[in-house]
Amino acid sequence: MTDPAIGQYEIFFQRSGTMFCVADADWSIRECNPAWRRELGLTAAEVSGKKIFDFIPPEDRAAALSQHKKILDGEEQALLEARFLCKDGTCKWLSSRWTYDREKMLLYGAATDITARKMITEALRESETSLRKILDRAPMAMAIVSMDGTIDYINRKAVETFGYRHTDIPNMDRWWVQAYPNETYRKEVLGRWMGHVQEAFIKNSEIDGGEYRVTCKDGTVKTCFIFGVIAAGKVFVMFDDITRRTDAEKALRESESLYRALIETTATGYVVIDGQGKVVDANREYVRLSGHSDLKQLIGRSVTEWTAPHEIEKNKDAIAQCARDGHIWNLEIDYTAKSGKTTPVEINATVVSRGGVPQILTLCRDISNRRQRQEEIRSLNEGLEKRVAERTAELTAANLQLVRENAQRLEAEKAGEHMRQELMQAQKMEVVGRLAGGIAHDFNNILGAISGHAEFLLKSAGEGAPFKDDLSEIILETEAGAMLTRQLTAISRHEPAQYKILNINEVVDKTCRMLTRLIGVNMRLETALTPAICSIKADPGQISQVIMNLVVNARDAMPEGGRITITTSAAGIDKRSAGFPLPPGPGRYAALSVSDTGCGIAAETLPHVFEPFFTTKEEGKGTGLGLSTVYNIVSKAAGGIEVLSEPGKGTTFRIYFPCMPQ
After folding, report:
1. Which of 84, 243, 344, 571 has its CA 20 to 30 A from that of 135?
2. Which of 291, 402, 390 is nearest to 336 (CA)?
């Protein structure tokens, strides 16, 4: 027969609105009533075989295990507050009380949903935390004080301002200790504050504020405007640090006192006027400048009243300009007193704000002495300017004369230098001529003998003689020696020139026939002759000698071979050019040009190429007479020479021969 008590227990277990659960010692669930399952949204099948831990979030299990251990260790009852997972994924806070039956090794638990209570507690905690955060971030020093004056909390700004934390000062009385050393007075100040607090508490209103001195932790004293509100039985006190403002106000008062003393003792007039020019304030010096004896005679009157009549409009315009632009500098105005005395003053003014109202602060300086000095200086300047003008005219005339004399002197020096250069060149050529004249004939006789014997041997040699080429080379070299002899003879003037009217193209054509053997097989000789070219008067032999010397010079500039070009053309010269080695005068010319593709002439070498015996060739490979002979022949023919050369890009010699009149 079933025990009636058991039946009643089963009915109570199943129908109770309280959550019940029976579990093994390892927390395995044997049975939980419908109320338990209903709170978590579970079915009997979903609970079967599970442990209590399976329904507790992992982060809360440590606390549950601790309570479980206490039960198993012998504690009769253990309270477990933990979150339980619901079927829908949410969590509920359950407060469960567990009892352990050691004989049956069963755990009996009853639980209550405390989710709402937990939420309210958390909200209150967060609200208090938020309030603390707000107060800590407030820009004003704040404290929470009990009605008896005990300090419960001060915010971060209060700590920064006064250096105290709420644990450093137990009550408000401590903040007045050094600020009010007199104990009676300190109690009076504290009593006044507490009276305001009690009155606000009774009337449920804000605490009337007031200025109090507060002692900081480091011993300094600050002036604060203290006020507050009463809420929740606490006094919320706010401290507005006005130390800087009060110090500034004190400094301003002292500054204004000093400022007034300065403007009253300065020798400069000082006046403050409004936008219409009426006097607001002035110092004693300005009163004197205006022709009055007391400041009361000026206040409220316009400055134009003591301005000279002819400058009243000027002064009005200046006041308007200053009000518009904000300043005016170095304005000169005449003041006229009742006595008729005129005082010139210099005015500098600027717009300032006094009590939020724009006014014009003006400094006036008596410039009577300066006007007198200016007049004296003006009179002196007139005399000085006259004297300067006279002296300037004298110096200008003398300077012009000096410039003319210097120009003449420079021209004379330039002409003298040119004559010295020509004299040196003539002397040099005379020395060369004497030397050439001394050896030319003997050298020519030797060449004649060598050439004669070589030609005799060449004619006597049979066909195929092995030395015929050597004899031909000897004859060729004697011809080159004969050319050198003719150059020496021409320089020495021992050989008279035979001038005749000729066409330069014909001389070029004949000479080119003889040049083939001179230039070598690795050279290419080209000509470009202008047909219609004027006739010239010259020695054909000398013209041929000029061509040969220039061609030989071009050949020596191209040891690896190259191209030599001979051209003729008509040329007109308008004026004498200083850039030519031998500048031609104005007129018509037949131009002979010899160009090569050789190494060119360096800029520092170019001025010396026509000097006798000057050569850049190795010793034994040049006489230095070729170009000097060309210079001598062209100079005697009243012609000109132009040289165009650039290192690495070849050289062009252009010879100008005067055309014969048609």
Report:
1. 243
2. 291
